[in-house]
Amino acid sequence: MNFEAEASGGLRVCGRAIISFTVFIFTAYGPGDVLFAKHKARKGIYEKVRIKKVTLVNTPKANASTGAGAYPMYTDTFNGVWFNNDLVDLNTANAMIDSFIAAQGASLFALECNRNGNL
Predict the structure, then answer these.
(1) What is the rounded (10 degree) CA torsion for 62, 64, 70, 74?
(2) Which of 28, 47, 68, 118 could form a disulfide linkage to 40, CB 3.0–4.6 angstroms apart?
């Protein structure tokens, strides 16, 4: 038995490509972290700040595909806005407060010596 077949035609394929990518941006602090206000620690005061949300703020030169030029803005539980330069961890806050106390002690000692005529 011989079987012969002949065919002609083509294949039409339609579709759409979806391209997606994820950019990972690492920040110094995350939601739930407890930090301290740097400007208060320099004055010898602990001001505790708990991070509620991290938002990326774009600069005019920000690159959308790499995240370069974007910097984090931290929102605390009282809806205060903080940046990286405004916050420090506990160890840094302790060091700043110890430095402030030492400086105040030295200046008070100098003032007392000057008052007594010992300087």
Answers:
(1) 150
(2) 47
